Amino acid sequence: MTTPAGPEVSDGPYDVNFCFPVRELENSKLKLTPFIPSTHADLLFQGCADHPELFQYLPFGPYDSASDLTKGLIEGRIGTNLSMILYAIIDKTRSPHPTSASLSHAPSQVNFAGVLGYLNSCPIHLKTEIGFLIVLPPFQRTHVTTNAVGLLLLYALNIPSISDSVPFPGLGLRRVQWQTNELNAKSIRAAERMGLKMEGILRWDRVLPYGKGKPTDGIEPRANDLKPGMGGRHTAILSVCWDDWENGGREEVLRMMERQS
C-alpha cells in the first residue's frame, strides 16, 4: 500500500527552501526525506567516492569531499533556488538495526540509497521536473528507482483533495518533466518506464567541460566560440501531464511500485 504524503515539514532540522509544501514521502519500501547536509552529505559522498561514473551525465560533480559536495550542490545550487528541493532516499527494506523498530530507518551506509528531487518548479504554471537522481550501486536494479520516482510522481500529480480514486493528496500539478543527456539511454528508459513521453531533443542545450567524465557527443564548438575548450550537450526532454496521469498513468505507476521486489 502506498501512502506517500506525510505531514508538512515546517520546522525541525530540515534546511529546505522550496516553492511548494515539503513533506516526507514514503511507502512500505522507501522513505524520501528532505536532504540534510549534516545527516546525509557524508553518506552521499562516501557512496559515490569510488563511483565517479554516477556523475557522468549530470551537470555537477564529482566532488572531492562531503564539504565540497555540500558547498557545490546544496549551498551553491539547490538551497538558494526556490524551484528546487533534494530528497534523501532511505531503503526501508534494509534495516541497520533489525532488533529496534524505532531505529530501523535511521540513515546509514546500509540503507541510504541515494538522492533525487524536484527542480524547475513553478507554482504559477503548475509544473515541476524530476532530477538530481543518483542511485548508489548496491541499490541499482532493485525496487529503489521505481519507488523513488513513483513517490515524486504521486505527490506532484495527485490532486490536493482526497477522493475514492485519490486516497492521498498531492500538489495537483499539470506537468512533470524529465531532462537528460540524449546519450543517457538508461535515464531515458527509466523515465519512459514510469510513463513519461519523449517530447524531443534540445540541441546545444548545455555547455559542458571536457574531462571529468562528461560526454559531449564528440561535437566540437565553432571556431572562436565564447567558451573555448568546453563541449556541448543535446538534452532529451520527456514529460507526463495531468491528462496522462488521470487516464491510466497513476494506476500503471502504482502497479509497478507494487510489483518491484
UniProtKB/TrEMBL annotation:
<dbReference type="InterPro" id="IPR000182">
    <property type="entry name" value="GNAT_dom"/>
</dbReference>
<dbReference type="GO" id="GO:1990189">
    <property type="term" value="F:protein N-terminal-serine acetyltransferase activity"/>
</dbReference>
<protein>
    <recommendedName>
        <fullName>N-acetyltransferase domain-containing protein</fullName>
    </recommendedName>
</protein>
<dbReference type="Pfam" id="PF13302">
    <property type="entry name" value="Acetyltransf_3"/>
</dbReference>
<dbReference type="InterPro" id="IPR051908">
    <property type="entry name" value="Ribosomal_N-acetyltransferase"/>
</dbReference>
<dbReference type="InterPro" id="IPR016181">
    <property type="entry name" value="Acyl_CoA_acyltransferase"/>
</dbReference>
<dbReference type="GO" id="GO:0008999">
    <property type="term" value="F:protein-N-terminal-alanine acetyltransferase activity"/>
</dbReference>
<feature type="domain" description="N-acetyltransferase">
    <location>
        <begin position="30"/>
        <end position="197"/>
    </location>
</feature>
